[in-house]
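Minutes, project check-in
Item: structure for the 508-residue chain
Input as provided by the requester:
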Amino acid sequence: MEQKPTPENMTMMQAFEWYVPDDHKHWKRLESQVAQLKASGVDNIWIPPACKASSPSGNGYDIYDLYDLGEFDQKGSVGTKWGTKEDLLKLVNAANDNGVGIYWDAVLNHKAAADHKEKCQAQEVDQEDRTKSISDPYEIDAWLGFDFPGRGDKYSKQKYHWHHFSGTDYNAANNKTSIYKILGDKTKGWADGDEVDSEKGNYDYLMFADLDYDHPEVSEDVIKWGVWLSKQVTLKGIRFDAVKHFSEDFLRKFITALDKEQSEGWFFVGEFWKDSLSDMTRYLDRMGKKFSLFDAPLVYNFSQLSKTENADLRSVFDDTLVKTMPVNAVTLVMNHDTQPYQALEAPIEPFFKPLAYALILLRFDGYPCLFYGDVYGIKGEHPFPPSCGGALPNLALARKLYAYGEQADYFDYATCLGWVRYGTWDRPFGCAVVLSNAGPGEKRMHVGEMHAGEQWTDVLGWGQGEVTIGKDGFGTFTCPGTSLSVWVNKDAEGRERFGKFDDDIYKS
C-alpha cells in the first residue's frame, strides 16, 4: 500500500502592528521580507487593511472607500498609510513568486470620513443597552454622505447616503456625541438580534457610520466589491474585521458569492473578539464549518498564566477554541488590538512569550498566527524589541521541519510541561519540547526506539549539552528556568537553517 505524503504544517503571520511608521513604505518593506519569511516557515501573511482610510496615517479600520486601494487622491493622499496600489501589487506578486499567500483584512462594518453631512431622523440609545432609546426621535445633521470625488464612478457608481446606514455617533447640529439609531422608512433599526452579538443589548453599532446590510444597495455593492477585489489582487483568503457587529446572514452571502467566483479553497477567518467560548462555538455552528475564528480565550489564558507566579500550565487550553473546535481555531499570542497601549491590551510577560508560541507552533492542533510585533518589534512612543529574544523565527522553522506525527504529552507537573512529536515516515525527525514557568525543568520522555543512539540538541541553543537516546527510545530532556528547549537530532535535515533570520526590517 502506497504511503501518502504528510501534509506540511502551515503557519500564518499578521504582517503589521498598530504603530508601524506612517511613512507609506510598509508594502515595500514587506516585499523585501517574503523570501526570508517563507524560508522560516511562514506560508501566508495577513496584511493590514489596504483600502483608503480617513487620513494618510489611518491604519485602515477607519475605512473610507473600499474601491480605493491607494490609487486615487482622496483624504489627503493617493497612497494609504502602507503605500500605493502599485506597491501593494508588487508585494502580492513577490509573495506569490515565493509561495506565500496573502490574506486580505476586510473592514465591512462601517465607513468613516464622509464627504458631506445629511439630515435624517434618529434616536439616541443607551451606550450600554442599544435596544433602549433615551430620546424621542429628532432630526440630526450627520456625516453620512459619501461621494468619493477622487475616484468618481470608476469601479463602482454606488454613493452612500443616510439611508444606507443604521447608526452614527455624532450630530453636527448640536455638536453632540452619542449613539444615534437612524430611523426612516428605509431602515428598521439595528440588525436583527440573532444576526449580531447580544453584548450591550445589540452590538450592531461599533463605530463611525454603521452600514445597514438590510439595505439591498449596500449588500449588492459590497458583494460586488468582493468579486472585484478577487480579480484585482491574487488572494488566498480574507480576515473579516469585527464580525460580531454586522449581519451574519450578509457574511454568508458574501462568502458564497466569492466561492462562486474564484475563491475555491480560500481561507476565511473572523475577528469575534470575546472571552466566551460558548458564544464563539455557537457563531461557528451558525456560520458553517468553512469558517475560522481567532482563539481569544487562549490569549487571555496566556496573559493570566504569565502574570501568575508558579501558575499551573496544565490549564492553558481550558475553555479555548483550539481545544473544542481545533479545525476552526486560529491560535495566536498577540495582535494589533491586544498589543501594549491598545484597546484590548492583554499583557504577556516577556519570559512567557516563547512558551506561548511553542504551545501554538509545536503542537498538533490549531492554525498558528505569528504577530509582526513579536517578529520585528514594535515602534511608536513605547517601542519594544522583537520578543522571544529574537528566537520566534526559529520556533516557526522548528514547526515547519520537525513538529509532525503523533503527539505524546507529559503534562504531569504544574510548572513544567513536556511533549514529544514522533515524526512520520516521510518527515521522520520529530522533536521533544520541555518548558517551565518556574525553575529549570527536566522530563524523561519516549521519542521512539528508532532514534536509539542519536544525539539530540536544542535547536534554540538555550538548553545546554546533548541528550543521547537510549535503546528503549527514552531520553532525559531539560530546559532552563522560565524558558524552554526544543530537542531534535543534531544531524537532522535542516539544522543548518536555524539562526539565519534578520529581523531588522527598518533598515534605511
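Outcome recorded: The radius of gyration is 25 Å.
No further action items on this chain.
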